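Input chain follows. Return structure tokens only.
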Amino acid sequence: MPGGARVVAPVAQLLREPMRLTRAGGGWSVLVPEGVPWRDAAEPVDRVVTGWAAALAVGAPWPVLALWWDADHAGFALASGFRRPVGFVWLTSGVPVGEEEAMRTFAGRLSLDPVLDVEALDRLTKPDPAADARTRLRGLLAVLTRVGVALPPGLAPGEPADRLREAVALQPEAAALQPEAAALQPDSLPVDRPGRREAFAERDTAGHSRLGPWMPWTGDPRARALALAQVAAGVPLTVWGLRRGSGGWGWAAAGALLVAHGALALGYGLTHPRD
């Protein structure tokens, strides 16, 4: 996600999932889940992370890219605003199973080069016996370096969840033993449910950033408009997800989160009027 880690943290709280947040290149941040809720709820990982991305994208004025992989598949989903998420899937062997047009839509939403970058992305949609799913995701990330994306060392597609968490966690004893590791992740911080002091410690800083006017505590009209938009988007998304039954629980949860976050933001604006 674009934005510094301490600016993204308050928005990421709406997911109400324990995560680790750190920078991912120039102007981008990355969230790494600390748990595996899709296993507990019998929900596929792609649906869970796509739901998270959709909720975050509506809750903030920047796009959200979700990368995921499991034993059989790998892929990505890009969410931006109220538009339908777009993504692509590969089998573990690297066989593409998505639509080529999705890649072009993806490139357009991120303002990638319509010639060079689109050609590179198109190659990821073609059969290649030498490229497995992990290689495909690395190829995708290589293209995204043009818009500033650079994952920290250790955050590599296909790595086990424990290894990903270790790559972003900065335990005091680890930093003492490996100060060079701490230097690589200077903005790493935990993200949990709303109310934690750590996530709001930098809210004054965020208030002066380009994203500040969209944050609930600023009292800015744009923050209220965003809260109303979250509620307006969350209600139909929740209903639609519930109607799909077990296949839509992830979307229903994302919709409920949007409604809850929008309602909380509106409530904050009413109880803390702007001077």
